[in-house]
């Protein structure tokens, strides 16, 4: 399995993770800043949360890491939570904005 196929699987898995306060997945919310896949299947995710006080700050990143680690072709997964740049609603996809009634 090549890096592009693994990345597509990772993005699909990210779409199954939700911020409990906003009924939209973390990928469409724009919380995922970077997905990097390097041989032989190491996946690095740079993501943020809607705020440092997010109630799932301690549980969401390990959930993401666990889902990614279980994908075929993934040999390792690491999630790095970053606060710069800070998340803001403009990072949301058009689909997320539509779902939340912001369009």
Can you give a write-up of this model?
By secondary structure, the protein is α+β, with helices and mostly antiparallel strands. The protein has one domain (3-84): GMP Synthetase, Chain A, domain 3, CATH 3.30.300. The protein is built from 4 helices and 3 strands; from the N terminus they run H-H-E-E-H-E-H. It has a 3-stranded mixed beta sheet with strand order 1-2-3. Helix 3 (60-69) links the parallel strand 2 (42-47) and strand 3 (76-81). The longest helix is centred in the first third of the chain and has 12 residues, at 3-14. The protein is globular, with a radius of gyration of 13 Å.
In short:
With 103 residues, this protein is of the alpha+beta class.
Helices and strands, with pairings:
Layout: H1 3-14, H2 26-29, E1 32-38, E2 42-47, H3 60-69, E3 76-81, H4 94-99
Kindly list the characteristics that best describe this protein.
103 residues, alpha+beta, GMP Synthetase, Chain A, domain 3, 3-stranded mixed β-sheet, 4 helices, 3 strands, globular
